[in-house]
Amino acid sequence: MRHFILLTASLLCLCSTPVFAATIEARGSAVIRNGDIGSARLTAYQNALRQASMMQNAKVNSTYATGLGSNIIDSIQVRSSSHLSRADIIDEHIANGIITLLISVAIEERSSSCGGFDNNSFRRKVAAVYFPLLDATQVGTNDYHGFQRGIPTELLQRLSASGDFLVRDASNQSLHHDPLNATSIASNGNKIRPLVNTLQDDLGIQYVISGVIRDLGHELPPSFRVTRNFELFDTEWNPLGVSFKPSWRGIENELGLKWQPNERNIEVEFFIHDAYTGELLARHRHAKVVKGYIKPDQPVRFGTYAFYNDPYGEAFGEMLDREVMAIRQLLSCREFSVKVLGEDENYLYIDMGRDTRIKKGDTITLYKSARQGPVFGVDGGSYQFSEPSVTANVIRVYAGYSAVQLKEKQSQVMFQPGEYISVN
Q1: Pairing between β-strand 124-129 and β-strand 207-215 as defined by DSSP bridges
Q2: Closest Cα to residue 363, out of 402, 419, 401, 407?
Q3: Closest CA to 359 of 415, 398, 332, 331
Q4: Which end of the chain is more exposed for a tag (fewer CB within 10 A), N or C?
Q5: Tens of pLDDT, residues 68-110
Q6: What sign does the dihedral 118-119-123-124 (CA atoms) show?
Q7: CB–CB of 205/128 below 8 Å?
Q8: Assigned architecture for domain 337-423
Q9: How many of the other CB atoms lie within 10 Å of CB of 201?
Q10: CA atoms of 319 and 147, how far apart (whole Å)
């Protein structure tokens, strides 16, 4: 019964309006190896903190919505908005070579402007990569083209225009060489982490957007229209006269009638990864059936005026705007994480240049990662930043980094070059 009450309380905490402070209980266990109770106790403590984090910090939201125009948005994302400030062991039990701890965890919820695109004023660094097309035969010679590089490029332009992001176009690189299995690969931290880490090292970004174009196919029923040239097409003579060969590209006769599909699919899946950890933060799938003029009969590049002036291109533009809103909301709820570049006796150097909107004279708070909880690079899981924290004054701001001076130097706050910290 007691476990049921704890679970119910945790679920209420996830579903209710965010509060500024809460205390939850969580259990963790570990096997005692070679009689080393101390190491097993530490492992059990870490596992308990991971459970606490999953109950309160890592909030997993899944939605599946349909609307007008057969539009579908399928979204799964993780939001982190809490600080784990204190954890106390309140019960310990050893049996059959296994140690089990019950801990009480104090959670501090940050004031929630999250989702309002103003969680902090710093501009996040984002890259977008090549979007492979699952079925290349769905795009013909005289058709719209350039989707694979056009989608990430157009998405970045919209994100940049919002003013909240510094963008890097990596549409010449791909994370999904096997687009058929892209969803499972994107969710596998061990496989995706080296790929996004490489992009982070090369481009200095915090987040990577990738995706797969799943469907651009035509739909029946077809319609007929009069062509401009009134040309014969796919005809042959036989003793009874003229016969016509069916063709997917169209059927014309001497009257200039042509088969023209009047429905076409859009289905694109987006993945947003943390570039430091390889963690999959969100998966968004947009799907829609577009009716009307959906095949131009001439080459039209994605993103051009001619593309957006057609119903099919207009629907793509609306989809990109929806995805921009989803990404802005997702990342406004994330910690602003940066890399420590170096430390000397007086200053700490962090990977925040003037284009991130950090300014000389700012007072900022630096958080170290929670070493006893989910940390960077552990099973691709959600990370968090926690105590100890320290405030700092921004002394100098350069193009690619800033120098800050710590206001109070506590013994437990030791920053190492190469580690990732949170800045607020």
Answers
A1: parallel
A2: 407
A3: 398
A4: N
A5: 344 555 555 544 445 555 667 888 889 889 999 888 877 655 5
A6: negative
A7: no
A8: Beta Barrel (2.40)
A9: 10
A10: 13
* Tokens of residue 111, six digits: 């004031």
- Token look-up 């570990």 returns 30
Helical pair 311-332 and 147-161, crossing angle rounded to 10 deg: 50
Dist. CA 270–CA 285, nearest whole Å: 6
**How confident is the model over 223-251, as a mean pLDDT?**
45
**Residue 410: CB partners within 8 Å, gap ≥ 6?**
388, 390
Q: What's the length of the chain? A: 424
- Strand ranges in 311-358 using DSSP code E only, listed in sequence order: 337-343, 348-350
Q: Which position has the token pair 């799938």?
A: 285
Per-residue model confidence as pLDDT tens digits over 37-63: 888 888 788 777 766 765 654 444 444
Q: What distance in Å separates the CA atoms of residue 72 and residue 66, rounded to the nearest whole number?
A: 5
Tokens found for residue 234: 């796919």
C-alpha distance from residue 291 to each of 222, 243, 303 (Å): 11, 31, 19
Residue carrying the six token digits 């999953």: 54
Distance CA 157, CA 159 (A): 6
Largest CA-CA distance found in the chain, in angstroms, rounded: 98
Residue-range domain boundaries for the chain: 2-60+80-109, 124-217+265-332, 220-260, 337-423
End-to-end CA distance of the chain: 41
Q: Look at residues 119, 94, 99 and name the one whose alpha carbon lies nearest to residue 109.
A: 119
CB-side exposure of 169: number of CA atoms within 13 Å? 14
Q: Residue 123 has what DSSP assignment?
A: P
Does the domain formed by 124-217+265-332 have CATH 2.40.50.40? no
Torsion angle, alpha carbons of 132, 134, 139, 140, to 10: 110
Using the CB atoms, write b or e for 206-221: b if 16+ within 10 Å: bbbbbbbbbbbbbeee
Cα–Cα distance measured from residue 268 to residue 213, given in angstroms and rounded to the nearest whole number? 5
Q: Which residues neighbour 404 within 8 Å (Cβ) at sequence distance 6 or greater?
A: 347, 348, 349, 350, 364, 366, 392, 393, 394, 395
Q: In what order do the strands lie in the sheet with 82-95?
A: 21-31, 98-109, 82-95
Q: Which CATH fold topology does 2-60+80-109 show?
A: Dodecin subunit-like (3.30.1660)
d(CA 380, CA 424): 24
| pTM of the predicted structure, to 2 decimals | 0.67
pLDDT at 305 over 80: yes
